[in-house]
Write a structure and sequence with these properties.
The chain has helices spanning 28-42, 135-148, 166-173; strands at 48-50, 60-63, 80-89, 94-101, 104-114, 116-122, 128-134, 163-165. The chain is an alpha+beta fold and 175 residues long. The chain has one domain: Alpha-Beta Complex (Peptide Deformylase). The strands form two sheets. Strands 1-2-3-6-7 form a five-stranded antiparallel beta sheet. The protein has a three-stranded antiparallel beta sheet with strand order 4-5-8. A hairpin with a 2-residue loop joins strand 4 (94-101) and strand 5.
């Protein structure tokens, strides 16, 4: 099953639902979701994706940071499938930085996020993994994790003046 899925857009009810936990990592259903998420993300300029974004309300995300037109300075990270993820901040420090979303095309916003977190998730081999993330990767993780709670990044914006059309966002960095 190598089907690229349509990305659910803002207003699609699944993006506002709390996703269900995965109980069987090795099930055919779970493996199909992971495959569809992987090929769908690879077909985009995105750095992460969550199952609700392909209209499946399950707790699976992929973080796959890589430089692209959308994120030219993104660090390189192998695509990492995270099942039933969670995190804890390692400090209370948050920074505002720019985010976009495949489910909200054409918009960027400054979003406050923890800069250092410790994540826990189940990998594709049903192993429990715990590791620290910081900076951009921590931001991507928190963004995708929010999708599992029915939250989108615009919900976290502190000031509506921090929301830009993507065309204006790119002008900021091309002058």
């Amino acid at each position: 099953m190598n089907n690229i899925s349509e990305i659910a857009q803002l207003g699609t009810p699944v993006l506002r639902q709390k996703a269900e936990a995965i109980t069987e990592v090795s099930s055919l259903e779970t493996q199909q979701i992971i495959n569809t998420l992987s090929v769908t993300l690879a077909s985009t300029q995105g750095v992460g994706i969550a199952a609700p974004q392909i209209s499946i309300s399950k707790q699976i995300i992929i973080v796959a940071s890589r430089p692209s037109t959308r994120y030219p300075h993104a660090p390189l990270m192998e695509p990492t499938v995270m099942i039933n993820p969670s995190f804890q901040p390692l400090s209370e420090h948050k920074e505002k930085d720019w985010e976009g979303c495949l489910s909200i095309p054409g918009i960027r916003a400054l979003v406050p996020r923890y800069t250092q977190i410790e994540i826990t998730y189940t990998d594709i081999n049903a192993q429990l993994i715990t590791m620290p993330f910081n900076g951009f990767i921590a931001r991507v993780f928190q963004h995708e994790y929010d999708h599992l709670d029915g939250t989108v990044y615009l919900d976290r914006v502190e000031d509506n003046k921090d929301i830009f059309a993507e065309s204006e966002y790119f002008k900021l960095f091309n002058n």
